[in-house]
Amino acid sequence: MKLSYEWLKEYVDIDVSGEELAHGLTMAGTEVGAIEDVDGDRVMDLEITSNRPDCLNIIGLAREASAVFDKDLRLPEMKIPERALGEKGPPIKCLVQNRKLCPRYTARVITDVHIKEASERIERRILALGLRAVNNVVDVTNFCLMETGQPLHAFDLDRIRGGKVIVREAARGEKLVTIDGVERELEPGMPVIADAAGPIAIAGVMGGKTTEVTGSTKNILLESAYFDPISIRRAARALGLSSDSSYRFERGADKGMTLAASDRAARLIYEEAGGKICELYDVGVLAPEEVSIEFDTGKAENLLGISLEPEKVKRIFRRLGMTVSGEKGAKMVVGVPSFREDIRKEVDLIEEVARIHGYDNIPATITRFVPQVKRKERSRRVEEKLREMLPALGLNEIMAYSLISEAAVKRFAAITAYPVALRNPLSEDQKILTPQLLDGMLRAVSWNINRKNTDLGLFEVGKIYSRVRGAFLEVPAVCVGLTGDLRKNWQEGRRPANLYDLKGIVETVLRGLKLSAVFREAPVEGLANCAGIFLPGGKESIGFLGEASSRLLSEYGISQPVYICQVKLDAIMENAVLENRYLSVSRFPTSVRDVSILCDRSLSAGEIRAVIEETGEEIIRGIDLLDVYEGERIPGGKKSLTYSIEYGLESRTLTDEEIEAIHSRVKDGLVKELKVSFR
Amino acid sequence: MDVLKRLDEIKSDFEEELTHCRDAGDLEAVRVKYVGRKGELTGILRSLSGLSPEEKREAGKRANVLKNEFAGSLAEIKERLKSERAREKEGGLDVTLPGIRHRMGTVHPLTRTMARINEIFVSLGFRIAEGPEIESEFYNFEALNIPLDHPSRDAFDTFYIDREYLLRSHTSNVQVHVMQRQSPPVQVIMPGRVYRPDAVDATHSFMFHQVEGLLVDEDVKFSDLKGVLSVFCKSMFGEDIKMRLRPHFFPFTEPSAEVDISCIICKGEGCRVCSGNGWLEILGAGMVNPKVFEAVGYDPEKYTGFAFGMGVERIAMLLYGIDDIRLFYENDVRFLEQFI
Prior knowledge:
Chain A is of the alpha+beta class. Chain A has five domains: 2-68, 2-Layer Sandwich (Phenylalanyl-tRNA Synthetase, Chain B, domain 1), CATH 3.30.56.10; 82-283, Phenylalanyl-tRNA Synthetase, Chain B, domain 3, CATH 3.50.40.10; 291-361, Phenylalanyl-tRNA Synthetase, Chain B, domain 1; 378-575, BirA Bifunctional Protein, domain 2; 591-678, Ferrodoxin-fold anticodon-binding domain (Alpha-Beta Plaits, 2-Layer Sandwich), CATH 3.30.70.380. The radius of gyration of chain A is 40 Å and the shape is elongated. In chain B, α7 (172-181) packs across α9. Helix content of chain B is 42%, strand content 19%. The interface between A and B is large, with 88 and 83 residues.
């Protein structure tokens, strides 16, 4: 909504600068944006909130200004002068078929008008507000719309066919060319004004071309009505057509203004275009609701945290167009005018007092601190811990969109159950709530590699979404991606990342949550060398890690190996140990023995470790794999693994003899169970 | 026996002096002083005449052991000094070679910003609560006094999943869940991800983050809201920041306000960031509308409360001077690594 300061001054006695007016209105809830100079006038851009349709006109804004600056409001003369009234005009029938759509419809016949340009006083006002000047009759309807907020429409009476206007719902297949020259297909249910032959206006939205007022118009029918806000809103949305008229009707026109605005417009048409003001057709009744609310100043004081003079409160109410009666000290009964349908409860009145009194005049108090004793949720603590540990391991946190394309979902079809799709997506790229974090990770990897950031360690803590048996699931998960060089320096040269780096990250993080995991080969479509990740004793995997397949890489335009894992956090959040408990550190020294095992290539490190752990029992304090070797120095089809095993007891120091004995037992065990030899 | 005691003193003096030696000259001086022809040890050996044969033998033995020990130490240090010198001469240590650096990871700027916001409110006694992103009409709209087919919905354009479910357009849905679960006093903040069908550009995103707060108790006042928000603004943006509240409209609060802070770039003088007016809008807030209390079964006669909400991207952009919201979701490491 635009506001002309000069126009405003016609209705309220204020004399502050444009900037002061803008500040005053802004601090009372009508935000003023840009201020422009137009021919010596100050024109302001206002943001009117949806609860205040009464401010979508100059009189309403004058009323606001009158309250903010405590100045008198002056309303214009609305009545039709005696001399303008004419004899009987051409007969016309007004029918309202759907009273819900249109509780009140008025139409005034005005004959013998003289169409020309509007006078300067009308034209400059509407031009200042950014409207187009058309002719005196159309300009007056726009002037009154802006002045009173009541949308009006003038039909060329002689072009209405069959001598009647009908307010009804559009029928299937009906069309109308609106005054902007666009042919519009009407949907059943849309409110229209029709004559005997068909629609002549989309009620409350825009008039039709055939009945518009032109230079040759002689007689007019001036419409002023109240249309149902929801019907207008639906029609305007369905047509993608928001007009000054529909904007006001959908927010609720002033029920007390239907006839008054019609009179005001007839008066101005008479002044601008001459003619005779004839019959008024008035169909339906629309009594504005009588609303009175009990107001207790004490309660307002309590809610706002200030003290208020009842006299000042009353003054604010009256300035805002309300009536005050039944005054008993701090208590009063407030009558609410028809243009303030947003005010129905006492708290609505408290807001009026607060905003006119000024939010700046309410103090800031810091009296209530309720100390928090409850600990954070486990889920949040696990997420926070991950966001500490993963960066400590050198990884950068990313955030990807949780809406992805259907194609991206299909790439990981094997790990995707029941994705959740949007009914009204903005684009094909953001259509489905992501069922995995791999797409976002690979997109981030691709984005970076394309910009020559080729050494990457990234992670995301996010959610994966699915719909299972009607219920929506949002499961927290973490995804890690590694690619390029893990380290690069003049001592070690390039050290490309590999799958074991990724596995190490997973193991380290799980250890940080005092959990361990079992890794088992488990294929996942799109990943090579893939392992499933299981909590000990867990039947279902909590995630997987692997190397992105070349097909997958090419889909993301990546041409270097990428190692990627995804782990769901629900089971982890349940099982993680977040408290620290001290376990006594043994005072007795341990001893380390190395052993180099020669075995078939097919034997897994996991099997060897299991045998060592089993035979060594509690005497084993640690097992480190120091070296894995395959090559010329050993027979073909074989490999060599060198372990460093640490022995010790909690209660005493082991003797050399005891250590030798247990170490031999471990070696014997390896030979017996796995048929290995030693180097 | 005095002589043995004296020998011990000589040993500790010798060791002490040795630690101060910086070059061969220093070493030679120490050698002469202790094991030279007129040195301390030689002096002791010469002064044994007044002692019994027993004592003589013992002291002599001890002095000879020390003499060998001293000679060994001197040789060792001489060698070490020599090799250090040699290394320096050869340029073996180039102090300008880069150290072997470790990769330091980073936390996403939005995570950091959200954590900072949370931390401030947690210090004021707020508890963190979370809720679903896929939400029903009731929690996202109806319970918050946002009726269907009402212009107030225009501000909350929404992605729908089916007729009933949608992607939440604000984290206010969590307010409703929290109030249904517990009775007052309630003091929570609700961080989370929200969605609105906005085409992506430098300042719009169809997905973004919010933090909302809610405090409900007996006798909560608008002035308390101002107090908490002013603590927040100062903790977040600096002691000297000014804050103002402007009346506004939100269906779920009344009275409602938009909260501005004095521009952190130009300090209120007027610049491009604040569109020249010196103020930056950063929050929406207000007293909880009694209709919301009715929807969750709280007695609106007994309880009052306030709620507020802010966009995390907006705050992060102001805080770090970021001018394009898309940077948060592109995940370029040259961007991410700045937030260390």
